[in-house]
Write a structure and sequence with these properties.
Strand content: 15-25%
Shape: elongated
Helix content: 10-25%
CATH topology of the domain at 2-130: Rossmann fold
Number of helices: 8
CATH class of the domain at 2-130: Alpha Beta
Length: about 425
């Protein structure tokens, strides 16, 4: 089945991971707007693709509900008589009246097995032969339509205008208007005041409103230092958006500029989004994740020995190489003794190392793009599966691990609460 995917741009990554990949794997021909051809009329391209599609899959988030493009695509699908399959991507999203009448598929807990199965079953019931045609005689009047004129009232008006008395009155009014215009133009003097152009209303400044506590960082990435926290329901003016459309640049109360994550799971945008421009930062992030690197081949071990007569002490060091240093120790009121301590090495604990996701079966939907609870989610990881831990980082006192999972297909960040590290991993 050929499917048209309608979604908000800020949700592109999660839609591609949760919806598009599953539909393609299920054998469907999915049209994603990455196929838009530059230089052509976008509206015409989108209209043609909706018309060629068998159904429209509407990815429901607060951003898509507010998106004028998504609303336009939905209206086009209804106009062409295409079935609409809403997919709820976030819980507690306020669904419009037109969508609330349709049966939606709940993906608010991620692409679980049940959610994917319901989506596939729903699409299977919408075979091309069962697609209802657009109604030829729709009831009521669409909001864009203009009420037709009443033929009888039109005829009455024409008769009135054709009457000689009416025409005389219209002629007198025309003469009076011409006289007043001449008087006004003659009293203006030789330097008339220039006509001022009509002032256009200034678009409402867009603001970002926090739906949960958000980090405000100095740059558009979780690796930049945290400047402050935007509390729940706190609002800041938006100055622009990052090139990857994942971060908003905001104006702080002290006049400084900061960045907050633009994911619709944590914020909502109010105001005129059309004035939000792309901003490319020039600053380089200071890297906060703590890397556990392999020690260099040169290490210095310092040991203070207290020598008992005829005793040969044994010292243990965690240095990564075996040394045979000679230590000369002097004991008070006794002859000088030369001893050879033995250093025993422990196994090297560095990244990458091995890890395990706790549990027996099912999917764990806790892997994120960046080491932050406000970062968008990555595809879920199988409980009980083995993972490869690449490095670690910290955020708000929590330890995060970057893992490679699903046989190396996916990568993302997960907190220490959801992964068990092996003995060859560094201790944080």
């Amino acid at each position: 089945m050929r499917l048209f995917i309608s979604y908000a741009h800020v949700d592109k990554t999660i839609v591609q991971d949760w919806i598009v990949s599953k539909l393609v794997a299920g054998g469907h021909d999915v049209w994603f707007d990455t196929r838009l051809v530059a230089g052509q009329e976008w509206k015409q391209q989108l209209s043609d693709e909706i018309k060629r599609s068998d159904a429209l899959v509407y990815c429901v988030t607060p951003e898509s509900i507010a998106s004028e493009w998504c609303q336009w695509e939905l209206a086009k699908a209804i106009e062409f008589g295409k079935p609409v399959v809403p997919v709820l991507m976030q819980g507690r999203t306020k669904i419009s009246r037109s969508l609330s009448q349709l049966q939606y598929v709940d993906f608010s807990d991620g692409p679980t097995g049940d959610a994917v199965a319901r989506l596939m079953e729903g699409l299977q019931q919408l075979s091309p032969a069962q697609i209802p045609p657009a109604p030829t005689n729709p009831q009521g009047t669409p909001p864009q339509a203009i009420e037709p004129e009443n033929p009888s009232s039109k005829n009455t008006m024409m008769k009135l205008l054709s009457h000689p008395a009416t025409q005389a009155i219209i002629g007198i009014i025309g003469v009076l208007i011409a006289v007043v215009a001449l008087l006004v133009s003659g009293s203006g003097g030789s330097n008339p005041e220039p006509t001022r152009a009509a002032e256009l209303p200034t678009p409402m400044t867009p603001v970002v409103v926090a739906m949960r506590d958000l980090d405000i960082r100095s740059g558009p990435d979780a690796d930049f230092p945290r400047l402050n926290i935007l509390p729940v329901d706190g609002a800041l003016d938006i100055l622009g958006i990052s090139e990857d459309r994942l971060w908003y640049q905001v104006l702080l109360a002290n006049g400084r500029r900061g960045w907050v994550l633009a994911a619709s799971t944590g914020v909502r945008l109010e105001g005129d989004r059309g004035v939000v421009s792309v901003i490319i930062p020039t600053a380089t992030p200071s890297f906060t994740p703590t890397e556990m690197d392999t020690p260099t081949s040169t290490a210095t071990a310092t040991a203070t020995l207290t020598i008992a007569p005829t005793a040969t002490p044994t010292l243990t060091s965690t240095a990564p190489h075996t040394y045979t240093p000679t230590a000369t120790d002097t004991q008070s009121n006794s002859p000088t003794a030369t001893n050879t301590p033995v250093f025993t090495n422990t196994p090297s604990q560095t990244y990458p190392c091995d890890g395990q996701i706790p549990g027996v079966s099912g999917l764990l939907n806790q892997v994120r793009i960046q080491p932050s609870n406000t970062s968008p989610l990555r595809p879920p990881v199988e409980r009980g599966s083995s993972v490869r831990i690449l490095r670690s980082a910290s955020d708000f006192g929590s330890v995060w691990y970057e893992i490679e999972y699903n046989n190396g297909v996916n990568k993302g960040w997960i907190t220490e609460d959801f992964v068990e590290t092996s003995t060859n991993c560094p201790r944080n």
